[in-house]
Write a structure and sequence with these properties.
heterodimer, A: alpha/beta, TIM Barrel, Rossmann fold, 3 domains, 17 helices, 39% helix, B: TIM Barrel, 8-stranded parallel β-sheet, 11 helices, 40% helix, binds cobalamin, binds iron/sulfur cluster
Chain lengths: 448, 322
Amino acid sequence: MALSGLDIYKLLPKTNCKECGQPTCLAFAMKLAQKQAELSACPYVSEQSKAALAAASAPPIRLVAIGTGEKKVEVGNETVLFRHEKTFFHAPGIFVRLKDTLPAAEADALVEQLHNYGVERVGIKLHVHGVAIENASGDAAQFAARVAAMQGKTDLPLMLMAAGAAAMEAGLEKAAGAAPLIYSATAENWVEMAALASKYKAPLVVRAQGDLSALANLTEQIKAAGVEDMVLDPGVRTSHGTLVVLTQLRRLALKGGVRALGYPIVTFPGEDAESVEEEITRAAQHIAKYAGIIVLDHFEPANVYPLLTLRQNIYTDPQKPIQVSPGLYEISGPQPESPVLVTTNFSLTYFSVAGEVEGSGKPTWLLIVDSEGMSVLTGWAAGKFDAAKIAKSVNQFGVPGKINHKKLVIPGLVAGLSGELEEELPGWEIRVGPREAIDIPTYLKTWS
Amino acid sequence: MTPAVQIPIEKWTGKVREITLGATAADGGTRAKTVTVGGENTLPFLSFEGSIPHSPAVALEIQDHYPNDWSPLLKEYWGDLLRDPAAWARKAEEVGADIIVLKLISAHPEGDNTDAAHAAATVKAVLGATGLPLVVLGPGQADKDNEVLVAVAEAAKGERLALGNCEDKNYRTVVAAALAHGHLVVAKTPIDVNLAKQLNILITDMRLDLDRVLMDPTTGALGYGLEYSYSVMERLRIAALTGDSMTQQPLICTVGEEAWRAKESKVNTGVPAAWGDWKKRGIHWEVLTASTQLLAGANIVVLRHPDSVARIKQTIASLMAE
Ligand code: B12
Ligand code: SF4
């Protein structure tokens, strides 16, 4: 938890030497508390105080990175229980489990699928975030071979799952430098697993079956052994149980100030599910309620795409809708005689419309009005997408200079604007397009 | 050893109102069963710190006019039942719905513009075909809503229907009809805590007890505004539990209507291969919209596809199971 100015003052030299640029140590402490000064400005703070201050200013839930390079997954560092209180910052990584018992050809095919899976939504690329390789065979060599076989096939972050330290090390050797997530340290094996985590500089999952006190104890011991990057598995698998325990963990970290539980959490929605469908619904639950890493047992585009969409929704900043810049966009090389469609700069609206216009193949001008990131009806209801604003954008973005006609197509949902718009844009013909973007291609076919 | 971890418990002071839909013969209606929702004094499914006397309920939506613009996936399942609201309702009960939501689309002035008598007859027919409680929604045009809902309220006197939508434009007439004939209302506002409270205040001013008001906070589908409705619902529920009386209505969410409008569930031509199998994707769209709303506090989710009903019932059961 954040320290107050007075708490910080107690850790300063209290000599008021002014070298930090502040008249007194207390004034400096106040600046520090408000994050308006850097501790390094005071040359006299003791090492002990530095350590204490660093610990106190660490985020309540540690930010943990899995993997290296561009695709590394960073989770944790959340600051609220509900997204409306601020926002959620680090969307959960969606991993897919691959057992080392799967025949090599099938395993390679799955890895290729996971590696290549990608889909764009509202201008953002969605993809799978990692592969969890499980030593289901119990054989260390087979596990190591599977990990080795990942080399060159994908740079997706890895999670290595093995019960014994020997098998784990065999796998880690093949993934050296890749910072895979180690699964897992328990009361029985934590000494060996923690040693491996240190040796291979890899984050470590800490697991205790359904007992948060035991879990906290374990993370403290492991931390004392020098491992900082941990992920929690509270060991609960039922739907109700995970909701409860993940909520409790988030509260303990944020409100209870329990540092020993201030780590991201990994879940396995398939382990207690009776069907793939149930696994997906549970994964969705874990996206909304507090997972950092979600390990799926099955991969199929129809299942994963909805989850990735939900992940994008829940982790969108409530204060800032995803937006595109207003302006006149060219789709498929429009000519002076091409149609002009107008819509808002809410990303979702823009991409729905632009996608359909592009799909239609018809060269088209798309005029994007600055609705402050609101959809058509929301913008209309809030006065951010009205006749005056549309008319202003037509001129501001130089539409008349680009076309040899005076026809403007408005969204069907705001058909009521056409009269006013004709007044705002004298001499223009205002046409009402379809209500849904899906119907735009058909509409454009007959446009003349 | 560190001291044992103390599990933090939220001590809420408020609770959600308990509301019963439908009336059996004993209570002046004809329903075979009634459905009670609400009554919880804790956040969704967190029974470790409060009590949740009733599971959320699952409704299926039916209409009194062939839904031309519905997704082919829905049309394929329901087939000719889509032309017969009574038979459609019977089937909806069979596939596990707890409640039927009947939308009187045919009354829309820009559609068939059928009259109040037609609406009343449709409601009678549906009541005759199913023993489940009914929510009856007008066509969504304020004047016409008033006209048909008044007739429906009278024709189904004592059945404890929920009449909707009761919005700022038409609440007076709908509330008066509910008051006169022993029904409930569905108070709908656009994703806004204060608008929801205001409407509840207006309704209370007309002396309709708040245990006869359901609240529809407006639903955004997965990928189409879900995050907004999710957060408004969480805020409403937290306000309810902190004791704000005008936010303590059970929440009803029109999930199917929104989720099946999404391109992902509606069509399969010209969509990316990465969207995967259409049918699975379509059902997921409805199920994930519903399950996420349930986590935010939905007490009734209104669906359109029976496969989603089965999945959401299982989801609710496993979230309730301690
Ligand atoms: C999410 C949402 C919000 C979010 C904002 C989201 C955003 N960034 O815009 C929030 C919660 C902030 C919000 C606020 C409000 N909202 Co609002 N909101 C919605 C909701 C649920 C979804 C909107 C959405 O994102 N749609 C998806 C996008 C892609 O749709 P779209 O922009 O219309 O684009 C589609 C079509 O129009 C078409 N299209 C788009 N452009 C073009 C162009 C052409 C040429 C063509 C042919 C087609 C076309 O293609 C797209 C895909 O089909 C709707 C209800 C609903 N379920 O639809 C209500 C809704 C739009 N909101 C409404 C209202 C009233 C409000 C508020 C005024 C309430 C209030 N007083 O607080 C405020 C206004 C904002 C403010 N003052 O701050 C009303 C509008 C009523 C009306 N008929 O005018 C709605 C319809 C809810 C309702 N039923 O009452 N809202
Ligand atoms: S430099 Fe350090 S010791 Fe000197 S006044 Fe500032 S805080 Fe105090």
